[in-house]
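WARN retry 2 of 3 for item q-0093 after timeout on previous attempt; input resubmitted unchanged.
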Amino acid sequence: GQNMSRSIWMAGAFVVALGSLCAANRSPGTDAPRSRAIQGSLSSNALTLAMTPMTVTTQQGQLVGSVDGGAIAFKGIPYAAAPVGNLRWREPQPAPAWQGIRRATTFGKSCIQPTFSASIEGSGSNVGSQSEDCLSLNVWTPRVNPSPNRPVMVWIHGGAYAIGSSNLPVWSGAPLANKGAVVVNLNYRLGQLGFFAHPALEKENPSGSVNFGLLDQIAALKWVKQNIAAFGGDPNNVTIFGSSAGGMSVLSLMASPLAKGLFQKGIAQSPYGSPEVSRANAVEIGSKIASAVGLRGAASTPADLRAVPAEKFGQLKSLGLSTSPVAISGDSVLPKPILSAFESGEEARVPLIIGSTSNEASVATAFGMDPAALVQRLGVLRGAIEVLYPGVNDDKTLGLQLIRDTVFTAPGRRFAALHARYAPTWRYYFSYVPTGLRSQWADGVPHGGEIPFVMNTVDLDQAIAGKLTNGDRTMAKRISSYWFEFARSSTPAPSPLWPTYSLNNDKTLAFGERIAVETNFMKARLDVLSKLYAQMFPAP
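OK item q-0093 returned
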């Protein structure tokens, strides 16, 4: 059903983490659901905008945009050179300049990624045409100038670092631009083209980077710093935000020495507790990938690897043939695992919002994982776990909540507690179910279900648009105002007041039927699960 299509963005990759964490079994090669197909657009007042200037001058050249949902949008702007040929698996290079005025009215091509069978609802070719030449970004601004120094919000899409694109309507920046932000979203290299190590590349460049997708995000942030003032944005007030692998990207950029100074705030939505792959492990995976595309495994040369048609990598669907859903630790981007950087206080000390939803485990059920079977495999642990969930009487619900809290809620709280030692930190829990989805979302808000609310794109989300009440729309406006106000002023200010979180001040803002501050939210349960998690994934 639609719960399956809601569980977007490479849910299957999470099963790797869930499997190691919870001893769950799954059959390899299962097709993954694609994101829901989304159509529709915001209505715009074309008359008001008819005389508005729609050209800007960037460092690469002039652009002309178009009206989109009441804002001015500039789409498909190249922020780096095409990472093709000899630039495959290299740091992104500057985008070439152009002469004349370039039309920026259509999205750039999506990065190479698997396309899953249409037999699964919500799958298909909704990211549009793909290309290895995909490093573009999009900008939405209320007006091209006259009032500069607007807050800048850079959205990083999710997809387990394996799928996704900046062109999905639910990720439109127009509604937040209508509040007064300049919104940017971007494509970055995915899967084997974005996160890759191999013996031949190690020999070619022993200390080279392996997180090319994260390097792309950093290159996009450098482009923003250099160019966003031309769109009316303040280059010194940049908030990065994202969900799922986008939330992991926010934490990665906070942990990365290469991203320091490129943003002033972060919002990590539904980051997960799966540890990064080590560089040595990534090299082994790279050798398997080389064999899978018809080369000589570890004996392949850099020239062999760079000659493989990009589409061949997009056809690799087995979970053992990528590092997804995590990045790789041990390069200049992530010298150490993210959690280690936070534990030693090396992350960027910027204000942070972090949280998750009430049914994050939808990523597992969408892939046929049986939460009840997981509970039945707990053995001697079962009694101790049941005590943590009073009132939960069936195995399926217990399994769903255990996965949610172990992989999402507890790790999110851990990052919050570590970061709160050095910078203002706010924690949230998102459980608001739209009235018309109460039967479909009976288990709670699925993974990614908060996105249309925080971006105020509920009417652009085909999975929920036809089932909304005015109350749902009002809730989206309220929730997105917290995100906008945080970007504007560094404090998420609307009523009710959202207190900061710390170990000694355990406050969480619950976005539920009403918005309310919770004290010691899930504390006893998360304390136990955090210890359990630390035993399963000891710090490197």
